Amino acid sequence: MKKIIVLIILFLTIGTPLYITAQTVDREIxxxxxxxxGGIDWPRQYANASSPASIxxxxxxxxxxxxxxxAININTVLLQTRIRGSVIYPSKYExxxxxMSGRPGVSPGYDPLRFAIDECHKRGMEIHAWxxxxxxxxxxxxxxxxxxxxxxxxxxxxxxxxxxxxxxPQTADIIADIxxxxxxxxxxxxxxxxxxxxxxxxxxxxxKQQGRENITRIVRKIHSKVKAIKPQIKLSCSPLGKYDxxxxxxxxxxxxxxxxxxxxQMWLRxxxxxxxxxxxxxxxxxxxxxxxxxxxxxxxxxxxxxLAIYMLDPKEGxxxxxxxxxxxNVCRQLGLGHCFFRAKxxxxxxxxxxxxxxxxxxxxxxxxxxxxxxxSINNTVQSSGNAVSLINTQVPDPKQIRQDLPWIVSNGQRVxxxxxxxxxxxxxxxxxxxAGNAVATLVRHGNQLDIHTLPNGMFIxxxxxxxxxxxxxxxLKKV
Length: 479
Hints:
There is one protein chain. By secondary structure, this protein is of the alpha/beta class. Helix content is 27%, strand content 22%. It has twelve helices and 21 strands. The strands form four sheets. The protein has an eight-stranded parallel β-barrel with strand order 3-4-5-9-10-11-12-13, surrounded by four helices. An eight-stranded mixed beta sheet has the order 14-15-21-20-17-18-19-16, with no helix packed on it. Helix 10 links the parallel strand 12 and strand 13. It is globular, with a radius of gyration of 23 Å. The relative contact order is 0.11. The model is unreliable at 1-25 and 365-403 (pLDDT under 50).
């Protein structure tokens, strides 16, 4: 388990709060890409505002998917939120994609993104908004049509598809505005950028270095806007599976850095990205040396290997499950997480992969020996006003929570802290999200803690003494 790295910056002014930033990588990423384009993962049934029953069917379809993902200990869902210049939530920038209602530009009668966020969080799973960046879909599709009316000069047509031009500064503004909108309006845990690169069939007229700078400009703009709103949000992308040629193993002309100007390892190293999900859709010597390369260069953040679960389907490939099992075990040995493309291929249990994951993903719990501390809370009492109920967790399954901490549940502005000896010598409380990332430090007033600045959600409270040492104190649920 990697150690928590905490940077403490003390201000000399008496009474000034202690500010802490942390990049914590204690929890193994176990993720899936949940695709909405064409409803190929979800939804399989359309919804419309005039039919509450159709909306309920679509919602129930997602909850069944999430229940099954939870059962195999998936902790991160990458939900396709921007499709191709179209989205699955009410946006002031782009139209509704047709995947939800069956009619491009038409609302399904509810907000699928908000519903998905709530359902993931109920199950203890992070949800990251998966944003397809450069592709805009068919030239005559709704995304391209709207962009052509707004600013046709930003588009490049290749075949029958349209793409935003990464060489124009306005492209960075357009994509960053979408990411900013999602971050402001939704309680997502991350923004996941897909296709943040040059299209493979783009005739590059600038140097490779300039091409990388063009793509990095987009990443930097998104980072600036997103982190200014919510510093705790995890920014990630899915680069090509091979970063560059290795000394002994060439990428065979298909790599992130040189082929499509995607400098992902630099983004992670410099903090522009918090996580990477390289699409390692290969096997044998096209997988293992390049997985090792990602692991060796990922000291500044988290990397989860994108695994080609779809190749277990006989219609897609001829892989045997032994190959995927080996990749999973090697990734764990390397300290890499894993992410499956895509959800349906996992849930269809091709060659028994779902059954295998039920065992594999419980073989190593999350940070500090537990996976999802709010999976199994029974009889939680929510407060009204400033009244707070302090309860102990009820744990029916010891696999899920191995440490019994008190819970604080409140919708008020202040909470009462439990009386614990290690809390007596500290005036500061460190607040972390469930991934272990520090999101705030709050001043303790006696046994009271002012939580009005925290968003609604689940947190872990730590005492913080003058030497920077921490002790786990309680779980907090702010509603």
